């Protein structure tokens, strides 16, 4: 099941995520035909932490 942030609202240009077989998958809602990116749970958690801490601001 793909999910997107509630911040996206009804927009069609969002990042969507899903959990499948212990991995976090991410895709661009504009290009559903592309293979999604896959991340381990620990890498995804590290990414979310970095975003929350502002470590990726300005990139």
UniProtKB/TrEMBL annotation:
InterPro entries per record: DUF397
Entry-linked Pfam families: DUF397
Protein name: DUF397 domain-containing protein
Positions of the DUF397 domain: 2-51
